[in-house]
Amino acid sequence: MIWTIIANVSSICSIIGLPIALFQIAKIKSKAEETELGLKRLLDMKDNENMEKISATIYSQQQDLSQIQAAATKEGTSLEKLDDRCRNIINELNLCVFQIPSRYENATKRIERTIKSIQEYLQWKNIERLKDASDYLYTTIRLLKKENDEFINRQVKDIAKK
Question: What is the pTM of this model?
Answer without folding.
Answer: 0.80
